[in-house]
Amino acid sequence: MPYLKSLLVVLCLLILPAGSAHAQEDTESLRPLINELAGGGFSETEQQLGVLAATGNPGVVPALEALADGDLYARKSDGVVFIGERDGRVYKLTDPLTLEPAGEERRRDMKKIKVNNGLRRVIRTALGTLTLMAPDPATRLAAADAMFKAQDPGSIEALDLALTQETEPRVRRKMEAARAAAVLKSDKPEAVKLGAIATLEALGNRDALSVLSGFLPEAQGAEVPATETAMARIDKTLAAWGAAENVWYGISLGSVLLLAAIGLAITFGVMGVINMAHGEMVMIGAYVTFVVQEIIRTSAPGLFNYSLFMALPLAFLTAGLVGIAIERGIIRFLYGRPLETLLATWGVSLILQQAVRSIFGPTNQEVGNPDWMSGAFELGQMTITYNRMWIVVFSLLVFAGLMLVLKKTPFGLYTRAVTQNRRMAASMGIRTPWIDALTFGLGSGIAGIAGVALSQIDNVSPNLGQGYIIDSFMVVVFGGVGNLWGTLVGAMTLGVVNKFLEPYAGAVLAKILVLIFIILFIQKRPRGLFALKGRAVDA
Amino acid sequence: MKKTATGMALAALLATTMLGGAQAQEDTIKVGILHSLSGTMAISETTLKDAMLMLIEEQNKKGGLLGKQLEAVVVDPASDWPLFAEKARELIEVNDVDAVFGCWTSVSRKSVLPVFEELNSLLFYPVQYEGEESQRNVFYTGAAPNQQAIPAVDYLMNEEGVERWVLAGTDYVYPRTTNKILEAYLKAKGVAEEDIMINYTPFGHSDWQTIVSDIKNFGSAGKKTAVVSTINGDANVPFYKELANAGIKAEDIPVVAFSVGEEELAGLDTEPLVGHLAAWNYFQSADADINYDFIDTWHAFTGDEERVTNDPMEAHFIGFNMWVNAVEKAGTTDPDAVIDSIIGVTVPNLTGGYSAMMPNHHITKPVLIGEIQDDGQFETVWETSGLVPGDAWSDYLEGSKDLIADWRKPMSCGNFNVKTGKCGGSEG
Predict the structure, then answer these.
(1) Are B245 and A374 a contacting pair at CB < 8 A?
(2) Are B55 and B320 in contact (CB under 8 A)?
(3) Which of B244, B287, B375 has its CB closest to that of A86?
(4) What percentage of chain B has pLDDT greater than the value 70?
(5) How far apart are CA A211 and CA A516, in angstroms?
(6) Does the CB of A347 have a partner CB in chain B at under 8 Å?
(7) pLDDT band at A398 (very low <50, low <70, confident <90, very high)
(8) Residue B348 within a domain
(9) B239 and B385 share one domain
(10) Pair type for strands B123-125 and B138-140
(11) Which chain B residue has the Cα nearest residue A459?
């Protein structure tokens, strides 16, 4: 490793001012060096990487990138190295220097040149050094990030050089941080190191804290108190952000609970049907997403980012129709007999699970995250993942939509009329059996679209629904049966309470404590947070 | 009167089943498959049922065993632990099978143990487990902790320079025992108490935000940090999704898992997970001709080119071949004869070497550390230079380090205490 590092310095000094001169050099001379990569273990590969980097020839970049991605292969018969792309049982080969196609080989005739995390780090640093001056700011940012993580004193010159030309403030900050981190590892004088400590303190995030705490044991003289104060300050800000983070996690968990429970709030809360197959409606929604994505993958890969929007109506319809079928086929015969409803719907849930298992197989299905749902962004010192954020937004939209349907549409009016006083609604000419079926279908359909959202964060397997059924009932009972607002407040409260307990009590105990809390709460207020008042209660 | 009638009916029934059994024994040798095909564990166990059917079909193509054809008897214990015991009894008593291949979770194995002991039959158990057990009628073809967990920790310590450890697991017997062993091992290696964080989560845990953020915090102490995960099947997908989205890269905080194989990764986009690790005794990517042949046969058998192979399948491959060899050696399928003849039987494994059955009913295996690739496969980055014999009783736990298991005569004991010189378990 040290051998390589010194070579990298030489390399970057060589390449930055005079890269173009090397570009013209005959790349063929690199071939034996690249073939040498197929040599042996990781240490040999690392050494050979150093040799390749020392040539200072940009021609090695594709080979290095392919190696980092694990796409570099050696032919077993003659040891020639190619970039390979798997295609069924063969590899499609590409020449690592000319980048021209070089035929294909059977998989068992090729040997992969292995990389591990250590090598990947080395390659990342090497490529980082090469791309510090790249035209694309995102590449430069990634390069600066790689240099920050490498903390290599040898990179200070390269960073200084890059800093003289850097204009993008975001990249500049990262480069300065990378330089400061490298300075702490170097043998620079105390004054320079104190400056670096100040830079890191100003950065104030977890990465800075990590660098500083790594430096503390090596600090000398005035550096020790400076590092300690800097760490204490960062700790303090991080603690404040930690509380904010907990609230966010609570809301995020609450939104998942809300999504899972909101359909149940209709079928159980409004109609009073104990529907144990509710979780399976969620699962059906998730499987619809899977099927939609499969069709898109095979026929129109370009539309992948819109797959969830297409899955939403389909999931609503599929789960809704299954729900109506269950209501017409089973539940309508069991109104007023909660115990039998419970057992019958439990049976239905097992049937649905096994049906899905027979059709799609018992294993997890891959549902991909569209680009806009992958990754995370930083808000202050908080990391917020996009998928969680969109699920919070989505759950609130679903809630608002449902409220709108129930309060502002004729169907909503009928539903409320039927649940409040069935006989009077019937005498007013409402076909109560059909309203029952449609309401049940609505609840199931909502569960279906919850499945689309949950497919983004959970397993898409036949057991998906089981994990949510208990939580859903808990939310609805806690929030108050028959009240959608209660479901919203209940879900959010349970989410936040759970997440505040988790860091202290651990995930297992937190769940138990929440359960005990609900039991005690129900003792005090048997009808939940928002109890319905008046005649509806007795209906 | 009624009593006698029932008694006679029972006797008649017994006679017919026994007759039926005897009849069947002449034509075929029956092999029981005891894997859940429905319920929570179907996700993992169904594949093993298919693998067993394939192995039996292949053996029949080669002319069967002792001149007879093999016949698979498949039952579904439906992920219901007590049902495992009932179905095991049904396989042995009603279907008269000569050996059973099955179980996945430790609790299902514990539930069938008394049945196999009482009826004196054979069970081949193919899954990595927590150790601390050796039973006369059971053969453990999966990894014991010293064949998976300990080498993985050694790898991280030596090759990656890890100094801080997060032991994260699902809250049940396998992770708890494994983490107890690992904690004792790490402390013996000089890791300080504050550099170990232990975290348990419920089955099917799906909200990993807090824990992933805790891991990030724990990892920002300036020391290289790694996560050792004994998180069970279903909870892994949300865990890895959260890791990927939170931007925790394997180069910074690697996660090594003991329950994540090719099958579990099938439901995941592995692009952001490249470099995270798993420790097993077999990976589908193993570069050996016998493995390529096995994969080809598997694809042909299932008719699906995308079906992956995994470590417990290899364990069944080894276990089944060991049983076949032992039966051929003994010349009979009688359990007592096979228990004697199977010790020392050596068969090829799928990574290009050989595995042997040891007197403690565990087998020798190579230990492989693999990194997740973007195609959902693992790339072996390190392996033990030789075979590691499975250790039934951990050397790092009080109460178990003095115990050994040896089922050869005259010792014939699964928990022999070398200190007291008595066969009598951990209490002694």
Answers:
(1) yes
(2) yes
(3) B375
(4) 93
(5) 42
(6) no
(7) very high
(8) yes
(9) yes
(10) parallel
(11) B237
Contacts of A112 in chain B (CB under 8 A): 379
DSSP A399-460: HHHHHHHHHHSHHHHHHHHHHH-HHHHHHTT--HHHHHHHHHHHHHHHHHHHHHHHTTTS-B
In-domain check, residue B407: no
Which B positions 150-189 lie with beta carbon below 8 A of chain A? 159-160, 171
Q: Which residue has the higher pLDDT, A220 or B110?
A: B110
- Asked, for residue B406, whether it belongs to a domain, the answer is no
**Rounded Cα–Cα distance for residues B135 and A293 (Å):** 48
3-state helix, strand, coil in chain A (%, to 5): 75, 5, 20
Residue with tokens 């570099």: A72
Give SS3 for B388. strand
Q: Indicate whether A234 belongs to any domain.
A: no
What's the order of all strands across the beta sheet hosting B413-417? B403-406, B413-417, B422-423
Average pLDDT, chain B: 88
What's A233-257 look like in SS3? HHHHHHHHHHHHHHHHHHHHHHHHH
Query: Residue A259 above 50 pLDDT?
Result: yes
Computed from CA positions of residues A208, A210, A213, A219, in that sequence, does the dihedral angle turn out positive or negative?
A: negative
- pLDDT 10s digits, B47-68: 999 999 999 999 999 999 999 9
CB nearest to B210's CB, from A116, A249, A461 = A249
Q: How many Cα atoms within 13 Å fall on the side-chain side of residue B415?
A: 13
User: Residue B230's domain spans which residues?
Assistant: 146-286+369-389
- Contact residues on chain B for A507, CB-CB shorter than 8 A: 199-202, 205, 210-211
- Among A66, A87, A121, where does a domain finish? A121
Q: Could you tell me if A511 and B202 are in contact, meaning their C-beta atoms sit under 8 angstroms apart?
A: yes
Query: What pLDDT was estimated at residue A532?
Result: 66
H-state helical runs in A151-277: 156-165, 169-185, 190-203, 206-215, 223-264
Nearest to B267 among A212, A366, A386 (CB): A366
Same domain, B116 and B234: no
Residue of chain B nearest A501, judged by CA positions? B210
Beta carbons of A466 and B213 less than 8 Å apart: no
> Residue A26 has what pLDDT?
59
What's the Cα-to-Cα distance from A19 to each of A24, A51, A66, A163, A330, rounded to whole Å?
A: 9, 17, 21, 19, 76
B38 at A interface, C-beta within 8 A? yes
Average pLDDT for B211-224? 88
Contact in structure between A51 and B360 (CB atoms under 8 Å): no
Query: For residue B86, how many other CB atoms are within 10 A of its CB?
Result: 15
Asked if B266 lies within 8 A of A383 by C-beta distance, the reply is no
Q: Which residues in chain A have their CB less than 8 angstroms from residue B207's CB?
A: 249, 252-253, 256
For residues B134 and B215, membership in a common domain is answered with no
Peptide bond into B410 cis (omega under 30): yes
Residue B424's CB is within 10 A of a number of other CB atoms, namely 13
Please give the ipTM for the structure prediction. Answer: 0.81
Q: B370 in helix, strand or coil?
A: strand
Find out whether B215 and B166 touch, Cβ atoms under 8 Å: yes
Question: Dihedral through CA B180, CA B181, CA B182, CA B188, nearest 10?
Answer: 110
